[in-house]
Amino acid sequence: MSVVQQQFRATHVVIDSRAYQHNLAVVRSLVPNKRVMAIIKSDGYGHGMQLAADALNDADEFGVTCQDDAERLRRHGVSKPLTLLSGRYTAPQLSQFGDRRWRPVVYDDTQLTAFDNLSAGAAIDVWIKIDTGMGRLGFYPHDLADVYQRLRSNPRVGSISLMTHLANADYPEHPSNRYQIARFKESLSQFDFAEASILNSAGTLGFSDSAFDIVRTGLVLYGIAPQARGHATALPLKPVMQFRSQLLSVRAMSAGSPIGYGSTYTLESDTRVGIIAAGYGDGYPRHAPTGTPVYVNGYTVPLIGRVSMDLITVDLGTVDARVGDAVVLWGAENPVELVAEKAGTIAYELTCGITPRVERLTI
């Protein structure tokens, strides 16, 4: 265990590195004989990129945002191939990719120009990204032939693979999913690509029959269910992150008492109120409304009133809770998916939003 001494604030994050390995095994069971690209961008979805890379060492490769992420991982000692999912780069920057085993995703004419301006050097394996319906990054399928030939004729280009991204993988019944898969298959048939990839986490759960060569999984590796699929406990996943704190104060309060800034909530009956050492200064969502679940001493209780910078308030009711009792803001006992749903956001935003002042423990 990596121990972080808790000197002042009780609020902390616990990262269970063993859960990564369990979740990776779940992914492999869904798409046997397929390669897994573990997506660890945005500092491993807020879990710590280097730690995620260490724990997911059995993944086939990693996906990151840009050169900065890739450089951090190489300095950390990660030797696996790295796919750079976005980012801009000049020809001098690009010239280093081959030796470093960085595989850029090519989605724009400016990137093709950077390849045109390369001098001699090690071959660079690339992904071409096409936009089959996401409306974000990627070449249109009707431009694929020109893009492919331009890259294939470049002596610095090694293998060429093809990817796209599903816009509605979270909603498996959405008709755009099968439409995008069909467009991708049509594009894939035009040339001899080294690898093909279309599925993210939600797609891997819903369309494993279209896994092609490699899946790009992020969220499920952190033990979080994709949106519209319930929470992770409904799937054989284990949450990696536990966001925890303690009760700072327990007070008996009378019906009619206002709670928090703006007095936006008034107690409807006499009750016991708990004050918890956590707030938006730690990454707890300020927009979380009254009723957002908080787990205190073995019971789920509702958040009441506004979230402050350092504090939140819960209605303890008849729960036997005392100062110093453990609180789970989200984690195994209080799924982050449920907290996010109540707060009108997605789990990604919550885990990525943990602030630097929050101490971290790794088990």
UniProtKB/TrEMBL annotation:
Gene3D superfamilies: Alanine racemase, Lyase, Ornithine Decarboxylase, Chain A, domain 1. Pathway: Amino-acid biosynthesis; D-alanine biosynthesis; D-alanine from L-alanine: step 1/1. Belongs to the alanine racemase family. Its EC number is 5.1.1.1. This is Alanine racemase. The active site is at K41 (proton acceptor), Y261 (proton acceptor). The keyword Isomerase applies. It comes from the Bacteria. The lineage of its organism: Bacteria, Pseudomonadati, Pseudomonadota, Gammaproteobacteria, Arenicellales. Residues 240-363 form the Alanine racemase C-terminal domain. SUPFAM superfamilies: Alanine racemase C-terminal domain-like, PLP-binding barrel. InterPro entries: Ala_racemase, Ala_racemase/Decarboxylase_C, Ala_racemase_C, Ala_racemase_N, Ala_racemase_pyridoxalP-BS, PLP-binding_barrel. It comes from Arenicella chitinivorans.
